[in-house]
Amino acid sequence: MTRRHRGRGNQGIAAPRVPASFLPGDLVQQPLPDSDELLQAVFQAQSDLLLVLSEDGTVLDYRAGRILFSPSPAELLRNRIQDSLPVEAHIKFDEAFSRVQRTGKDSVFDFSLFIKQQTHWYEAQLTPLGQGLIAAFLRDITLRKENELAMRRQMDRLAALRTIDMAITSSLDLNLTLTMLINQVKTQLNVDAASILLVEPQTQLLKYAAGSGFHTDVFMHTSFRMGEGYAGRAALTRQTIRIANLSNHQTDLLRSPHFAQEGFTDYFAVPLAVKGRILGVLEILHRAPLSPNADWLDFMNMLSGQAAIAIESAIIFNNYERANAALILAYDATIEGWSRALELRDRETQGHTQRVTEMTVHLASAFGLTEQQIIHIRRGAILHDIGKMAIPDSILLKTGPLDTAEWEIMRQHTSIAVKLLRPIQYLAPALEIPQYHHEKWNGTGYPFGLKGEQIPLAARLFAVVDVYDALTSDRTYRRAWPRAQALEYIRAEAGRHFDPKVVEVFLRMLEER
Question: pTM surpassing 0.90?
Answer without folding.
Answer: no
